[in-house]
Design the sequence.
């Protein structure tokens, strides 16, 4: 969340940031309720001070033998006690509304983010690799996979419904190989691997910004306070919730594999074919925790780590800075990495790498102790997919396809597949 010092002290700056995002977040309502809350708090303190003075006077009156006056004052203090109880309830209600409103105000964009209403204002930063060319019409993975016998949407629909997939044989092996390859690569680059729960509580989702705003996109386990993880960002970022880390241990860089579960409530029929937008998919996630002074250096490291996966797999891609209107709720700046998909003839997002600055840290109570002493400070949190496994599998299939329907396996994956260099038709 944004600091109270910021939105109280410079609401115009916050308003400009929200306007750039095209956000209708209720800043004015927050300011109004906050003002009435502080007035209520001041009235509560005045009433308590009056009661304290009166209580002392009651004792003095009885001690001096002025019993009748003491009884009268005691009655007034009892009445005042009820007013204080009412004032406490009023102040508490206003405080809770302030806290609830704070949770739905998005992060402000960094100064380096291009201003624009949507993806049309995104800025391409760099490209890598050569877009493959074919002497035949390349096909999409939703045709290639079923023809190879490794991808099955119909049987998935029988057991779960639309937007699920079954991977058979070498399809399942390829998914597993990609996960292992990504984790091994990140570990070799000094990331600490962590295996986390696939269920998280409400507090964890509030900490990273999925709740309350995106409740409709989550799968809630009925009868519990648990939700299926939409991304490993949620459990990994919250691992140090409520802790104070020593600056000497920063930055911390973690990698984690989880399946991810999303209702896709706001997708409105987009990407209904294939593996692009599934209710369940695998992902390897990177999370960095750093001091504010180096967090944008860490963003470059994080993005570079995700890019390295694609380089090793020899997949062409580009890096795009998202505009103010295209960024996620918690991000201050986001790089999208978009991989070339030959069967669809376009670049598609395969990773989002974001610096959330102290936005999530304030929600999740993530702090560090400066090496030079002094007050604890909020960490900066960063996260990025490295990579979305299903979309990487799509890129391998579509960019490695041959005219005979087989698919060339990238050299980096062959050790994970027993040396197999080509996917062919499975029975």
Sequence:
């Amino acid at each position: 969340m944004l600091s109270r010092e910021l939105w109280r002290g410079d609401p115009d700056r916050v308003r400009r940031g929200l306007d750039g995002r095209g956000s209708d977040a209720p800043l004015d309502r927050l300011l109004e309720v906050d003002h009435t809350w502080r007035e209520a708090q001041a009235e509560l303190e005045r009433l308590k001070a009056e009661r304290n003075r009166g209580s002392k006077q009651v004792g003095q009156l009885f001690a001096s033998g002025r019993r009748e006056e003491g009884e009268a004052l005691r009655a007034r203090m009892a009445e005042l006690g009820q007013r204080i109880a009412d004032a406490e309830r009023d102040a508490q209600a206003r405080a809770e509304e302030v806290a609830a409103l704070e949770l739905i105000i998005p992060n402000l964009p960094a100064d380096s983010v291009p201003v624009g209403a949507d993806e049309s204002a995104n800025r391409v930063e760099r490209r890598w690799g050569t877009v493959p060319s074919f002497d035949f019409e390349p096909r999409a993975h939703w045709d290639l996979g079923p023809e190879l016998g490794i991808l099955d949407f119909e049987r998935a629909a029988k057991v779960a419904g639309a937007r699920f997939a079954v991977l058979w044989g070498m399809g399942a092996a390829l998914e597993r190989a990609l996960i292992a390859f990504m984790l091994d690569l990140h570990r070799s680059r000094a990331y600490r691997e962590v295996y986390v729960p696939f269920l998280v509580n409400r507090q964890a989702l509030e900490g990273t910004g999925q709740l309350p705003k995106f409740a409709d996109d989550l799968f809630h386990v009925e009868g519990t306070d648990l939700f299926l993880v939409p991304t490993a960002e949620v459990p990994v970022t919250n691992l140090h919730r409520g802790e104070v880390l020593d600056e000497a241990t920063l930055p911390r860089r973690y990698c984690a594999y989880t399946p991810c579960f999303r209702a896709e409530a706001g997708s409105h029929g987009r990407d209904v074919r294939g593996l692009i937008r599934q209710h369940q998919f695998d992902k390897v996630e990177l999370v960095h925790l750093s001091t504010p002074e180096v967090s944008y250096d860490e963003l470059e490291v994080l993005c570079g780590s995700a890019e390295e996966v694609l380089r090793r797999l020899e997949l062409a891609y580009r890096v795009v800075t998202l505009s103010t209107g295209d960024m996620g709720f918690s991000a201050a700046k986001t790089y999208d990495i978009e991989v070339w998909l030959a069967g669809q003839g376009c670049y598609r997002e395969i990773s989002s790498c974001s610096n959330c600055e102290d936005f999530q840290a304030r929600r999740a109570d993530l702090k560090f102790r400066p090496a030079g002493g002094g007050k604890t400070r909020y960490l900066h949190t960063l996260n990025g997919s490295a990579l979305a496994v299903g979309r990487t599998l799509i890129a391998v299939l579509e960019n490695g396809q041959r005219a005979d329907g087989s698919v060339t396996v990238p050299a980096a994956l062959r050790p994970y597949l027993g040396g197999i260099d080509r996917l062919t038709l499975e029975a």
User: Anything to note?
Assistant: The two ends are 53 Å apart (CA to CA). The chain has two domains: 4-102, 119-423.
